Here is the input.
Amino acid sequence: MDLFSNTNYNFTKWRWHALAFSAILIVLGIVQIARHGLPLGIDFSGGTIVVLKFQQPTSEEAVRTALDTIPGEKVVQQYGDASANEVLVRLPQAQQTEQGTSLEQGATQVLNAVRAANLGTFEVISTEIVGPVIGKDLQRKGLYATFASILGITLYIAFRFRLSFAIGAIAATLHDVIVTLAVLTFFGYELSLNVIAAILTITGYSVNDTIVIFDRVRENFRTMRGASLEHQVNTSVNQTLSRTIITAGTTFLSVLALYIFGGEVLEGFAFTMLVGIISGTYSTVFIASASAIALSKNEANTPAAPSASARSASDRPRRRERRNA
Here is the structure.
C-alpha cells in the first residue's frame, strides 16, 4: 500500500529545529530526574503484591477504603476478568532490611485490614514479595540488558553500513530512551520491569525503522552519484514514508488499545510504548538522518592519504624535469 506517492517533503531542512527541540526536551527531563529522581516501582525498590479472590462481587473502592489504615501509597485494581472477583493490592516496601518478618509485614497488614472491614469471604491467590536487595539486583540487570542491546546494535550497523550511520542510529536510539524516561517522569510513571521491557522493545523498533531508511540511502548512493548527501537522505526518507507511517500507525493503534483496556498492570508498559513509537518515528526521520549527514561530511572532509597511483602521477612531472635538466 502506497499512502504517499512521489512525495518531496524537505525533512532535512528542519533537522536543526528538530535537534534543538529534542535538546530542550532532554534537558528538561534531566532536570526533572535530577530534582525528583526516577520513581522506582516495586520491582526495583521492593514491595508487596497480594491478589485476593472474593466469593462475592467486591468493588475496588471498598477494598481501597479498607486499606486506609495502612500508611503509604497503595494501588488497588481489578485483577483478571471482572467475573472472577479478584483484586490486586500493591504496597511499597516500608522496611529497608532484607528480613523475612519485615518483608511479610505488608501482606499481613493487607489481610488483617480486609478481614477487619468485613468485606466477605476471600482467599489469597498469590503473594509476591520483592525485597530491596533483590530490587537493586533487578535494577542492575535491567541496565545491563539495555546497554548490551545498544552495543550489539552499534556493532551490527557499523558492519552493515558505515561507522557514521551506526553513530547516527545510536544517537537516535539514545534520544528515544532519554525522551521516554523524561516523559515517564513528567507523568509520574514508575520504572518497573514492564517499563524496561518496553524500553528494550522501543530500542529494537526504532533501529529497525532507521535501518530501512539507511538501506534506501545506500541504494540511492549508486543511482544518485551527482546529488548531495542531504538530497539523497531526503529522497530516501520520502521513498520510505508510506512504510514508516503504516508501520508506526498500526503499532500505535494496537498499543493504544492495550493502554485503554489493559488495566493498570499494563498501563506503564503501554504508555512507554506509545511514547517510544512517536519518539522513534520522529528520531528516525530527523535525529538519525541529521547525525549521519553531519558525520558523513566530516568523513568526506578528512584528508586521506594519497594512493599509489596518485603518488606515481605526481612524480611524473618531476622525472620529466630531471630529464630536461
